[in-house]
Amino acid sequence: MSFCLEKGECFGLLGLNGAGKTTTFKCITQELYPNNGEIIFNGVNLKNNFNYIINKFGYCPQYDAIFEYLTVYENLEFYSKLKGVKEECMDQLIMALIKEMRLQEFTNKISGRLSGGNKRKLSVAISMLCNPPVILLDEPSTGMDPEARRFMWSVIHKMSKKGKQSSVIMTTHSMDEAETLCKRMAIMVNGEFVCLGKANEIKEKYGYGYELNLRIKPMTEEQENKMYYNKFNLDNKVIVNKENLSEILGLINRQSYEGEIREGRLGAKLFRDMEKNNGISIRNLINWIFYCENAIKFVKFGYDNFANIIIKENMDNNFLFKMKKKHQGGKSIGYLFGLYESHKDACYITEYSIQQTSLEQIFNQFSQNQMSTMIERNSTIVEEGDVENFQVSHNNEIFLSKNLMADLLGDEY
After folding, report:
1. Strand partners, 351
2. Minimal CA–CA distance to 195: which of 217, 215, 178?
3. pLDDT, tens digit (0-9, with 9 covering 90-100), for 139-184
4. Other C-beta atoms within 10 Å of 137: how many?
């Protein structure tokens, strides 16, 4: 890895457990001696310069470095003395930090009896002593309830922005936390940076594009009669099974859907229900066809604006599409909303949303690479059959080609 910090910047280190985040902090603080490379602060090489580190860095480790039999005040007093705070200033400094972290009611309480969230607050307070130029926070909001976590975000934001006195490097598993606090961030995989930049830059470069999530209104009894039962002279009490599936699809001119009713395709759930219950009602079949036709018809209106479209998930009347932006002349999200809004009623869409690929999805994408490497390295943990299941579980997406659209939409294509 190679990166630099600006004054007042909050920099995020993201990655799975084992990616190397805590090890990086331990190398900076010389708890571990780096095999190679240099860590330079203000032109000073930190190697063998531990006394310099004491005054320039604040550190909140992953596991609280507090003395559990000392009170909150005594913990801060101990670390203040290590930092060289003058006796006449010490009480004022400690009480200001206790107030800043909302720990007033626990000032004289034994720290070992604090809740997990308040222990993290104390650890962060210790790292803030004397406003060091660089503060290292290793998962500072771990174990906190949502309200305490939001409070911690405000504290971290203030320590980096207020007067730009301290730069913050923080690790976190929360993508919301990273996006809220960090000006720049890096995702680590197996000890290396795989991407570095602002949240929007990472989304733009590594994101797939957009996700379209939509829900289709179920057919009414009147629609079922008009579109299927009366039109094709069908008995609405027929049970569809493997033996008569082809015949029934032929009667309603939907033969192309037969290839989709199998494992790993659009009708995988129907296929499983058919096997489990020795058949499904014809109502379930025609409703599923109705959902598929309208979802694909809806997406088709914007098809030419994307490099490709993938059906990521579909469950009953809910569909999730991944839409990859074209490299040149990609349309804005506002344009897409306008385009789809004008066609939603014709496709019986009750609700839909379009959003850019999230930071969490990009993080998970990189994390899969680390998981794959871990599986390869440690075959004793995951047996061969489990490796195959792991690979298959991430390969259930269906590419929506023009040929597939033509087959499923038929004359409406």
Report:
1. 215
2. 178
3. 888 777 788 888 888 888 887 776 567 888 988 887 888 888 888 9
4. 29
Task: Quote the strand ranges of 149-266, DSSP E.
Answer: 167-172, 184-189, 192-197, 209-216, 239-240
Distance CA 10, CA 29 (A): 18
229: DSSP letter = I
The backbone torsions φ and ψ at residue 227, rounded to the nearest 5 degrees and listed phi first, read: -85, -20
Q: What DSSP character marks residue 261? A: S
Residues 6+ apart with CB under 8 A from 185: 11, 12, 13, 14, 178, 196, 197, 198, 199, 202
CA 15 centroid distance within chain = 11
Give CA torsion, residues 144, 141, 190, 392, to 10 deg.
40
Q: What does the pLDDT look like over 241-250, one tens digit per residue? A: 988 999 999 9
| Helix residue spans in 304-358 (DSSP H) | 333-341
Beta-carbon-side half-sphere exposure of residue 324 (alpha carbons within 13 Å):
13
Enter the pTM of the model: 0.68
Angle between helices 282-300 and 402-409 (to 10 degrees): 130
Q: Could you give the angle at which helices 72-83 and 116-127 cross, rounded to 10 degrees?
A: 20
**Nearest 5 degrees, angle CA 335-CA 403-CA 205?**
45
